[in-house]
Design a protein that fits this description.
2 domains; Glutaredoxin
C-alpha cells in the first residue's frame, strides 16, 4: 500500500527544504518506497480532519492503511524498521543508530531552533542584542561536542543510518548561518553529500 504524507501547501522556508516533511521524504526515497503527498494550507492544518491525524495541527503526518502517525522522528523510525537500508542488521548497531536519532531531535535540534527563532522573530525586541550571543553559544557548544564525536569518521556510527539522516536534517538549518564553517567535519564530504541528497529529494518532490 502506498503511504500518504502531508506537507505545507506553501512552505514557510520558501523552498529550502527545511520543513520536517523533508526528513520523511528523504527516508522514503532512501528505501525506495513510493509515496503520495497531500498538501495542506495553514487553515486546513487546524481543521478537525487534520487534527484527527496530528493533535497539534502540524506536518508531517503519515497514513498507510489503518495506520496514522505524526512527528517526523517517529515516522522515520517506522520507515526504517519496515524497510532495509536505514538501520544496521545487528541489534547493538540498530540501538546506537536509534540513539543518534533521539540525539538529533532532543539534544541538537532545540538550540538550533532557538537560534533560528531568535534571528528571524526576535530582532525587534529590546533584549535581542543581549540574548543572541547566549543562544549562539548554546548552539556552538552542541556543535563542538558533535564535531568531537564525529572526528574523522564519515558517519556517526559505521555506515549511513537513520541517525545520520536525522542529524543532517537538523544541521541543514544552520547551513546559511555560517556556524557550520567552524566545524569542517560537520560539513565535510560525507555530510555535504547528504545535504545534496536532501536537496535532490526536495527538487524531485517539488515536481510532484
Amino acid at each position: 500500500m502506498t503511504p500518504t504524507i502531508t506537507a505545507f501547501e506553501r512552505s514557510p522556508d520558501g523552498g529550502k527544504g527545511l520543513a520536517r516533511d523533508m526528513r520523511v521524504r528523504w527516508a522514503l526515497e532512501e528505501v525506495g518506497q513510493p509515496y503520495d503527498v497531500r498538501l495542506l494550507s495553514f487553515k486546513a492544518m487546524k481543521e478537525p480532519a487534520h487534527l484527527a491525524l496530528h493533535p497539534f495541527g502540524q506536518i508531517p503526518t503519515y497514513e498507510e492503511g489503518d495506520l496514522a502517525l505524526f512527528e517526523s522522528g517517529a515516522i522515520v523510525f517506522h520507515i526504517a524498521e519496515r524497510h532495509a537500508g536505514l538501520l544496521p542488521d545487528d541489534a547493538n548497531g540498530r540501538a546506537r543508530a536509534i540513539t543518534w536519532m533521539f540525539a538529533a531531535l532532543s539534544t541538537m535540534e532545540p538550540p538550533i531552533i532557538d537560534l533560528a527563532i531568535a534571528r528571524l522573530m526576535e530582532r525587534d525586541e529590546a533584549w535581542y542584542e543581549q540574548r543572541l550571543p547566549l543562544v549562539e553559544e548554546r548552539a556552538r557548544i552542541r556543535l563542538g561536542e558533535l564535531s568531537a564525536r564525529l572526528g574523522d569518521a564519515e558517519w556517526l556510527d559505521g555506515p549511513f543510518s537513520a541517525g545520520d539522516l536525522m542529524m543532517v536534517s537538523v544541521l541543514l538549518r544552520l547551513k546559511a548561518s555560517g556556524l557550520l564553517d567552524q566545524y569542517p567535519n560537520l560539513s565535510g564530504p560525507a555530510y555535504r553529500r547528504a545535504f545534496e541528497a536532501q536537496l535532490a529529494v526536495f527538487t524531485a518532490a517539488s515536481r510532484t
